[in-house]
Amino acid sequence: MDKVRLGFVVAEFNREITYMMEKLAEEHAEFLGAEITHKIVVPGTFDMPLAVKRLLEKEDVDAVVTIGCVIEGETEHDEIVLHNAARKMADLSLEYNKPVTLGVSGPGMTRLQAEERVEYGKRAVESAVKMVKRLRELERS
Ligand SMILES: Nc1c(NC[C@H](O)[C@H](O)[C@H](O)CO)[nH]c(=O)[nH]c1=O
Ligand SMILES: CC(=O)[C@@H](O)COP(=O)(O)O
Prior knowledge:
globular; LS/RS; transferase; riboflavin biosynthesis; Rossmann fold; LS; 4-stranded parallel sheet
C-alpha cells in the first residue's frame, strides 16, 4: 500500500514549544511509516490557511498536518487567532477533499498548559494517517 504523504505547516510563534511539538510529530510520522513531503514554517497560527492551501494543491500531499500553540494574553485575541484559522482550515479540507488535521493547542491556554500539550502535533499526525488510509479504503469499497 502506498505511503501516506504529509505536508506540515508549523507556526514559529512560541517556537520553544512548537519545536517540541514538531519533533514529536515528525517522530510519529516515521513510526507510522508516513513521509513528510513538504514543510512550511509560518509566523503564527493565523497565517496558516494560505500555507495549508498551497500544500493541498500539491500532487505529493495526501494530507496536511498543522502544528502550533496559541497562548492567551490579556485580551481575547487568542480566540480570534485560533477560531478563524481553524474554521478556514476545516473549510479547505472540504474544498480540496483532503484531510487537514489540527495540531494547534489553545485557546484560553497558559504557557504551562501549552507545555503539557506538546503532543497535539503527534495526535494530528495520527489522525491524518488514519484519515488517508480509511478514505482510500472507502474509495475501494
Ligand atoms: N499570540 C499568538 C499568535 N499570534 C500571531 C498570529 O498568529 C499571526 O501571526 C499575526 O496575527 C499576524 O498575522 N500566533 C500563534 O501561533 N500563537 C499565539 O499564541
Ligand atoms: C494570542 C496572541 O496573539 C497573544 O499574544 C495576544 O496577547 P494580548 O491578548 O495580550 O494582546
